[in-house]
Structure formats: structure tokens, C-alpha cells
Amino acid sequence: MVGIGGSLRPGSQSERAMRIALDSAAAAGAETLALTGDDLVLPFYDSAITERTPQAVRLVEAIRRADGLVIVSPGYHGALSGLIKNALDYVEDLRPDERPYLDGRAVGLAAVAYGWQAAVTTLDQLRTITHALRGWPTPLGGSINSAEVKFDEVGGASEEKAVRTLQLIGRQVVDFARRR
Fold it and tell me: What is the pLDDT of residues 122-133, one digit of tens each?
């Protein structure tokens, strides 16, 4: 399972949220890989350019091998971050594959934003993008208001409900991948 998320700031709230979901997936038996921050600093996606940076190759190959993904974006101005959107644009490189885009893959989604409106709209955008890429969003998605919930450095949060939601998202991705 591949985790894509966070911001350019190491240990950001959205990265910590993603790690909770990935840790839950690992506890359920999944092999996990987190791609965050510097891993996602990629040139703007351009399908006309066939050369890829080592980071872009690593991202695309990790997704190609994955049976599931967890994607957590910060919400900026009511939308997902450009960092996460650009990383998802690279999924286009999987178009010619036998399993194109995110076809047949479970995708757990969460958004972390300072305010409910941005958290909810960001999650909605992540779901829309996942559908467009033929992925299967988990039944549960996470909208987390970072004005009310703070994640700590050891895998917890100020609100246990947020932790339980993220853990369930991680388990749902593993469960779907096993059934698939």
C-alpha cells in the first residue's frame, strides 16, 4: 500500500494523519510505503514530456505495484494542495498499463484543513479525482478540521474519533485489496 500525502513541511498535520492510516494498514498485514514532502516535489506533469525525474519514476512505480493507496491532502483555500494534485496527475503514466490508472485499487482518502468547509470540499475533490482515475474510494473518508484536532508525533491526536476514522480507512483499504 502506498501513502501519498502531507505537505512540504515534515511532520505536517496531514502527513501525521496519513501515517495513522498507513500504520493501521500495516497492522492489518499490508506492506506500506509513505511518499511525502520531498518525495512529491516533482516537475509539473506534462504528458508530452516522456523523461521522468527519479522521484517521479519512484512514485509511478510504487503506484503501479500497489493494490491500495491512502491519500491525505491538506486543504488550501477550499481545495487539495497543488503538491498532491500534481502527484496524482502522474497516474496518467499508468494509462497504457494492463491495470490502467488506479483500476481495481482501493483508495482511502482524507483531508486535513483549518475549518470544516475546506476539509469537506477537499475530501470531495479527492473522491472525484479517484473516480476519474478508476479507483475505488473506501466507504469511509476523513474530513478533519485542524482547528479542532491536532495530531501528535507518536501517532495520536487530540480527538480519538479522528484517529479511529483514519485507522478504519487504512483497514478498509487492506480489506478491499484482499477481497479483490
Answer: 999 999 999 999
